[in-house]
What we know:
Elements: H1 12-15, E1 30-33, E2 59-66, H2 73-76, H3 79-88, H4 90-94, E3 96-98, E4 101-111, H5 116-128, E5 134-138, H6 141-154, E6 158-161, H7 165-171, E7 186-190, H8 193-211, E8 216-220, H9 225-240, E9 244-247, H10 259-268, E10 272-275, H11 279-291, E11 298-301, H12 308-314, E12 322-325, H13 342-354, H14 364-374, H15 383-390, E13 394-395, E14 403-404, E15 418-420, E16 424-430, E17 436-442
Parallel strand pairs: 2-4, 2-5, 5-6, 6-7, 7-15, 8-9, 8-10, 10-11, 11-12
Antiparallel strand pairs: 1-4, 3-4, 12-16, 13-14, 16-17
Helix pairs in contact: 5-6, 8-9, 14-15
Amino acid sequence: MTDQTAMHSNDANDAGIRRRNLFRAAGAGAAILGGGTLLDACSSGLKGSGSGGGANSKEITIGWVHPLTGSLSGFGAPDEWIWQQVSRTPQFKKGIKIGGKTYTFTLKSYDSQSSATLAGTLAKQAIQNDNVDILFADSTPETVNEVASQAEALGTPLVCANIPWESWYGNLGGNPVKPTFKPKYAVMYFLGAEHLAKCFIPMWSKIGAKYGSDHTVAAAFPNDSDGNAFRSVFPPILKKAGYTMALSSPYPDGTTNYSSMISQFKGAKADFFTNAPLPPDFATMWKQCVQQGYKPKLATVAKVLLFPTDAYAMGNLANNIVTDAWWVPSLPWHSSLTGQSCQQMADLFTSDGHGQPNSNISNYTLFEIAFKAFSQVNNPHDHDEVAAALYKVRLPEALAGPIDYTSTNPKTNPAPGVAITPPVGIQWQKGTKYQLEAKVVDNTLLPQARLTGDLKPTFA
Length: 460
């Protein structure tokens, strides 16, 4: 283990948060922000007592499990910057008054290294050793599901993001078809697999209307939590919309030869292609598709090519591939903490030297939800009270979009603890300022987002 630098959140401006270093965790260690002394995240010795900072502590400790390194690191790329912004807000800089006391915030960051097993281990460490008051987890089932399982089992409030709600809900024991189960400690915001199908269909129809269509969609879904959710959800939605699926057999993550499924797709003469693989797997699969002559009129992918660095890494192979985006600068949302707009936040991200905005700037809303919950409790160290307060959170304005856990509207809240933030369709097109630029080409599910480009075929 290694010691990491710690600082109070209200000193973040002066200290600069030691860019790119402070948020890196070594092994199962953690970067710690807000503690005020040098700390070792692995040596607390405290075992989960049910109160995060202790009954007399005036610190609220947030633990954040996220992939900062490994194959999913694109998801965690903006997280250090997000904490910089949050720590500068009046609410987090000055602390929060609860019951006549002022509580400051401490953030402990845990790098899952894109490992599901490590994510669960770190969640357990955060709860039992580091005594967090609330947990955050985000970015795919590989990170979130194990953390959610630990939080529910060990009784710790948790806010999750960036995981299809069906995967999250099913992992905790709920049935997405009959969503009556209510998790006790965990809530989440994001989209569902059905939203991706409904996001992609209008774009297939647009391309088909212009270039012709056999209404056949090649689909390659892996044998993992996301793949299984997509395999269950996509077929009935596509059938209702008049599309037939050429669905490959489930394949294991890490597969290196996709020749058999490519032959299947070519034989089906599928005009459209969709999948939801791990990012390295897609790079291999797509290269083989092009080499073996499978060139669909439109490729629409999920879980990959979500972020600029992933698109750049594929070079010309990423040209005109479509994916989803749950957050874009052209959305009209505002921070509940500062009133800053999505565009202002995106511009700040770019001016701070991070290039094109990353959709996971929406992780900012993890902190908005947590602050709102803590503002409604009498004891921020009481896990049951904080968990109950999460279900009372209603944010008409938040950077990721409106969040309301009190709603029972199935369109916005399909299950207890779930708040939907719908996606838009974005396409990676040759850019002028950047090698590839993400253009908003379809806003069917989120008409509030301004279109910034015209949809093009992946291969004409």
